[in-house]
Amino acid sequence: MAHLAALGGTPVAPKGLTARWPETGDAERQAILQVLEKGEWCRVGLPDEHSEVAQFEREWASYHDARYCIAVCNGTVALMVALWALDLRHGDEVIVPAVTFIATADAVVLCGGVPVFVDIDPTTYQIDPDAVEAAVTERTKAICVVHYAGYPCDLDRIRAIAEKHGLPVVEDCAHAHGTEWRGRKVGAHITCGGFSFQQSKSLTAGEGGAVVTDDGDLADRIWALHNCGRPKGVGRYEHHIVGGNFRLSEWQGAMLRAQLRRLPEQTRRRMENGAWLAEQLRQLGGLEPLQRDERITQRGYYFFVIRYNAEAFGGVHRDVFLRALRAEGIPAFAGYGVPVYRHPSYTESGVPHKVLPCPNAEHACAHEQITLSNHLLLDRAHCQAVVDACAKISMHLDELRQLAASA
């Protein structure tokens, strides 16, 4: 009789692991009811002290160790208004990592720029500083780093490169709510950072985004860009630059404020369970979490990333292991599947872009990367199920090979 569920055995999690997300309660209900009853659903015309969005901006800036925050309608727009405010022009190059969600590069394209894809560090999956240095040309306008999976990139090296070449740095923090580097949360370490509050993120209002920075002039320009070109303090129909309506609604501001009060405790749970899960998987062998860096003083999570070693599993490909793991009821995936530049939107559309050698990104995407949702880290029982399923597969390599042969 087969042991692995993929061959007819009993799954570790027969109903599949499902985490209730977002976590909600009376605080969220009251927040929405207050906006409903107030009848002011848009921040335009509201004094900051009466605006849910304005109050969220203050709270998020404070939480993420930044002087300024501008809330916008989504994470892609957060990157776009940051790049616009940095005067990105048609044909300017922006260095981006090859492994990220496609919005990182698309934001550059939508602003008229040219994304230059560079490789990742094979042990952390973060943008490789050496690759960044090699990609700088006279056309380089900015560096856009990503704290992929919530693990921060090497901000020390990136800062040194940026200062050497006089380049601004946009931190894509869509995965990194609560992440700290050397005791300071990411986002405003160098120039500015953009966040997403989409449904799957660890702080969410369904949709939404924000930019944080310590640069007051940059913050003022981003504010005007997101508010139809109106700087703060001018009349409703007085437009000083070309901008758009990228504002967040009062509904979303209220929801984010309520959710933010939950985030520190949720981050603690994710960190504790993530550390426990990493240690358990290391003991199994062949399943290596991202390399630990002592400069990371707090870890926000979007993905829990596992580096799969096929040799430890009899040479069976990562995709077969994933098939076996999913059959056990564990929702595991291969990140975003391919490096960004391999999507049809780049290979078939004629969109201007550059691809530098990315062997680490290619290997990670095709053979190595396994990702779990951050929501599973909220419950130790879910983490235990992941360990049990991986251990079960490890103990039955003959069946795993059989599954591979049938593929």
UniProtKB/TrEMBL annotation:
GO terms for molecular function: lyase activity; pyridoxal phosphate binding; transaminase activity. InterPro entries: DegT/StrS_aminotransferase (IPR000653), PyrdxlP-dep_Trfase (IPR015424), PyrdxlP-dep_Trfase_major (IPR015421), PyrdxlP-dep_Trfase_small (IPR015422). Its EC number is 4.2.1.144. Keywords: Lyase, Pyridoxal phosphate. It is an enzyme of class 4 (lyase). GO terms for biological process: polysaccharide biosynthetic process. The active site is at 201 (proton acceptor). It holds the Pfam family DegT_DnrJ_EryC1. The modification N6-(pyridoxal phosphate)lysine is found at residue 201. Belongs to the DegT/DnrJ/EryC1 family. This is 3-amino-5-hydroxybenzoate synthase. It comes from Candidatus Fervidibacter japonicus. The gene is rifK.
